[in-house]
Specification:
Blueprint (H helix, E strand, L loop, with lengths): L5 E4 L2 E4 L2 E2 L2 E2 H36 L1 E4 L14 E5 H6 L7 E5 L5 E8 L4 E5 L2 E4 L2 E2 L20 E2 L4 E5 L17 E2 L3 E10 L5 E2 L2
Antiparallel strand pairs: 1-2, 3-4, 5-6, 6-15, 7-8, 7-15, 8-13, 9-10, 9-12, 10-11, 13-14, 15-16
Length: 205
């Protein structure tokens, strides 16, 4: 007759296939819990990395301002962040300060003046949209002494924008053939924050 040892564990009598006085399933459960904890930790890390990458893509793309085209809003050498999500989910708005891609894949920063389907013209130093004078809180945004291509009516396609630098006398923008009308696909995002130099840190409008 074989005697089978029994062990009372947490109020239950079990056959004592044991290790150091405890049931074997105690160790199996503990190993399973460790595995679940490790998997949970790995999933958390992956989620955090993906969220961080998404946030950087949407709001953290860095662009450096080159030249004086956007003075006084931005100075040459300023480093800004662009909001890609604003243009992925919506459309550029008039007076947005936007970053757009050139043919050489570099970014330029200018202000949106004309929207798709509109006609832009500069007459005697004043900007006209569809035959009406452009209106803005800052009068300087409504004028341009140099007309360039906009000396004659510039008709924008359904996916084209007319961009100007704030420093109209020293800006290469949609008035010149080197840039011309900017297509929707070129628009990278809305400039929203200046991060350098530290003395100029703040929102960009």
């Amino acid at each position: 007759m074989e005697i089978v040892p029994l062990l009372c564990y947490r109020g239950e009598w079990r056959i004592s296939g044991t290790k150091e006085g405890r049931p074997l399933d105690f160790y199996e459960n503990r190993e399973e819990n460790r595995l679940q904890a490790a998997i949970g930790w790995i999933v958390d890390v992956i989620v955090m990395v993906l969220l961080a990458a998404f946030a950087v893509y949407c709001f953290g793309t860095r662009v450096q301002m080159r030249g004086s085209s956007m003075r006084p809003a931005l100075e040459s050498g300023d480093v800004v962040l662009i909001n890609r999500l604003a243009y992925d989910l919506g459309s550029p708005k008039r007076f947005d300060i936007a970053a757009f891609a050139r043919d050489d894949s570099s970014f330029n920063i200018r202000r949106v003046i004309g929207l798709p389907g509109e006609t832009v013209q500069i007459i005697e130093g004043m900007i006209y949209i569809n035959g009406e004078p452009l209106a803005a809180e800052e009068e300087s945004l409504c004028s341009a002494s140099m007309a360039g291509l906009a000396e004659y009516p510039v008709e924008l396609g359904e996916d084209e924008y007319f961009l100007l630098g704030d420093n109209r006398e020293s800006s290469e923008d949609s008035r010149f053939e080197s840039i011309g009308n900017v297509s929707r696909s070129q628009m990278a995002g809305k400039v929203w924050l200046r991060i350098a130099p530290a003395s100029g840190f703040g929102w960009v409008r």
